[in-house]
Fold this protein.
Amino acid sequence: MKELHLHYKRLGTALALVMVLFGSTRAFRHYFSSEQALHQELAEPITANKSSEPEIQETTLTLGNGGNVNKLLTSFGVSKEAALQITNAFAQYVSHRNLKSGQNFNVRYKRSEQGVEIESFQSQPSIDQKIIITKSDGNYVSKAELIHLTPVVHVFEGNVHSSFYSAAMKAGVPTKLVQEAVDVLSYVVNFQHGIKAGASFKILCDALRNDKGDIVKIQQLRFVSLQTGGQDHKLFAFTENGKVRFFNEKGESVVRSLLQTPLNAAKLRVTSGFSNSRMHPLLGYCRAHKGVDFGAPTGTPVLAAGEGRVVSCGWSGSGYGNLVHIRHSGGYETKYAHLKYINKSIRPGAVVSQRQVLGGVGMTGTATGPHLHFEVILNKHHINPMKVQALPSLKLTGGALKKFDSVKSATQQEMVNFVQTKAVTGL
Ligand SMILES: [Zn+2]
């Protein structure tokens, strides 16, 4: 307060002095108005300058097919010289060969009559590295920033209503992980008739999380479970000699000599409820019909259910249309009917591996819609493919089984822990 008073006192003295100097209040007024004008004169060019000074804007540029950083910048309006400088600065950290189309660049820039001037150029070419290029003394300098990632366990879960694939997508499971889970499950599950609508699944995997809490990378699939009807399939990953394989709770390998679903199964629509199979062959197996039908879009890859040798393939006269017949070990045979086409490599006598593509789903022969008719024969008798008790290819014993059991309990504990954390963050 004291200072303020003093200030006013001084101002008063100054005003009095001015009045004395100019002699009249009029002159005083004149002085002030001209000073105001002077201010305006000075102020105007400053504001004019400010408005002509281009504002810093932000945008995201995306690398197109076959594009490169240099082209991206010049087509954005950056001078050739600056574009080259930025390109070279960027190349100090990331080789252009490692850039993929779709790569985003966050750009801060000014646009004027002279063109576009880049203030900063940022990109994250890998999940754990950010490249930042900034302008400094007229030159572009780059630096790399490491993004801290924490290894975590992540669990996806959901309920199947139309297909496993759409349920998994809804639960946010990345496509590659869905396929891995389906591949593992298709040894033991019939993806069309063995999954009832409402079935629940859980997928546990290793993942990497950034500091914001986002999962930025999914790594190894570690556990998958599918609970449907009275069945509860639980499959655990177990690594031995650097090789990851899946085993059921008993330590038996999920790999069976025959697949339950000899199709790319992820997108198969499940049959809702299992009524009388005699009513409609598409609903399952009946003795008269000898096989199981899988309704699937035309062209869906049909896979060899197991390793074996092709007995015959091609057009069959008995309503089967295009048919492939394979003989496996242990007295098993499989047949695949109504195929739209048969792959060229499938010839009588050819050896096929499990999951090898035989052809595509079609509706050749007697068929009302595209579907795969699949038959399993054991010792010359047709059997229900859904009841095939193919033996596991491997059963863990001794020390390996002990190790597996500890991996299994650790994984089960991780499942429990994950649910707990989720509950805490959900509050
Ligand atoms: Zn059929």
Observations:
- The longest strand covers residues 215-228.
